[in-house]
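Minutes, project check-in
Item: structure for the 181-residue chain
Input as provided by the requester:
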Amino acid sequence: MKTLALFRHAKSDWSDARARDFDRPLNARGQRGAAAMGQYVRQGCWRFDRIVASPAVRVAETIEIASRAWGRSFAVEWDRRIYLASSATLIDLLREIEGDPASVLMVGHNPGLEDLIFDLVADDGTSPLRALVEQKFPTATFAVMECAIERWADIGEGCARLTVLTRPRDLDPALGPELPD
């Protein structure tokens, strides 16, 4: 059994229309969301043997802020292939993980992370958390899957069970979507 956790970067800043997508930083709500999720992960006592992440600025800032809130720093393996990757690319990356660590945290982007859940968790109506992902996998969402595999090389369609799905608004309603007046 392997554990795969996914953490989507927090809300990014779109105020500079000239900035490259890769270089967009977090906005104020994103910074609050990253901190809230870092505290949540600390309280849940999750541990990760390996952390792989997109090197995009918003991902790096999400990790930095969440780590401070968690009270720990982490060795992160930056992999540009995660930036805007498809589920197939993310699965390939997971299959390449050396040393077969028991738990991996992947920090990246949508739609890749959301699609990865869809590919790994069977669409058989038995997972209410998967149904929530079908509605939306918002920024700064944290998910944990238990994968019925012995080696990361064996990860594939339908091998996982989604056990945790926490969105920022689940921790603080002010971090949820902005509603019209």
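Outcome recorded: Strands lie at 2-8, 50-53, 77-78, 103-108, 142-147, 160-166.
No further action items on this chain.
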